[in-house]
Specification:
Length: about 220
């Protein structure tokens, strides 16, 4: 059985979305400098790097990360689709409709635009400010699939920096403001490499850092 990470390391070189403050990961004590042990100080907002968002992020009545049970972060019917997009483009309901048959049984959607592989390392500023995002119509379309509980993407935010309002609305839609009985996790800045195939995905675990009563947290995604 092959196991692989679908998340990135969190460090000083982690690209950030828009004007978000950068990650700072600095040594407090190093053995090589005479310290008793090695340990570091980490400073970051909870939306840097690969992270999972709970409904409370945009829905004041929605659940927070620590309201969920461990089994809520386990997905056994993941579906990977490719919707290739470039600078500032939006993913709409029309992009998703050709994949309806596969989405019917999915509990997790992994949507690969290809943008992350091109620019996350090569041009992090472009990645943070010009990446594509979701149109609100895509959120409304995905709500029709009752088994779908989460969306994973290879872009720094579900909302494109160039189109903030429709990005906000996408978040509100999938986080239950219009339909409190059907909400989804959103995982942003995930590692969906070009060699990842549907056959690589039988089960995915999203393991968030358990920040008490938080709207989101850095997460490690493990795919079997």
């Amino acid at each position: 059985m092959e196991v692989r990470f679908l998340s990135f390391e969190l460090g000083n070189d982690t690209p950030t979305f828009g004007d978000n403050p950068p990650v700072s990961f600095q040594p407090v004590s190093l053995i090589e400098n005479g310290g008793i042990a090695n340990y570091f100080e980490l400073k970051t907002i909870n939306h840097n790097g690969t992270h999972v968002e709970a409904p409370w992020h945009f829905n004041p009545g929605g659940a927070r990360l620590t309201d969920f049970k461990p089994e809520d972060f386990v997905f056994v019917r993941p579906v990977l689709i490719d919707v290739v997009k470039t600078d500032n483009e939006l993913i709409t309901d029309l992009d998703l409709m050709p994949h309806a048959a596969r989405l019917e049984q999915a509990d997790l959607l992994l949507l690969r635009t290809g943008y992350g592989a091109l620019y996350r390392l090569a041009d992090p500023k472009r990645y943070g400010r010009r990446a594509p995002g979701f149109d609100a119509s895509a959120g409304r379309y995905l709500l029709q699939f009752p088994e779908l509980r989460g969306i994973v993407m290879d872009i720094p935010s579900a909302g494109a920096y160039a189109h903030p309002e429709t990005g906000y609305e996408f978040h509100r839609v999938v986080m239950g403001l219009g339909d409190p009985d059907h909400t989804m996790f959103i995982v942003e800045d995930a590692r969906l490499d070009s060699d990842l195939r549907q056959t690589d995905l039988s089960r995915i675990i999203i393991a968030p850092l358990l920040l008490k009563a938080a709207d989101a947290a850095p997460a490690t995604l493990i795919a079997e």
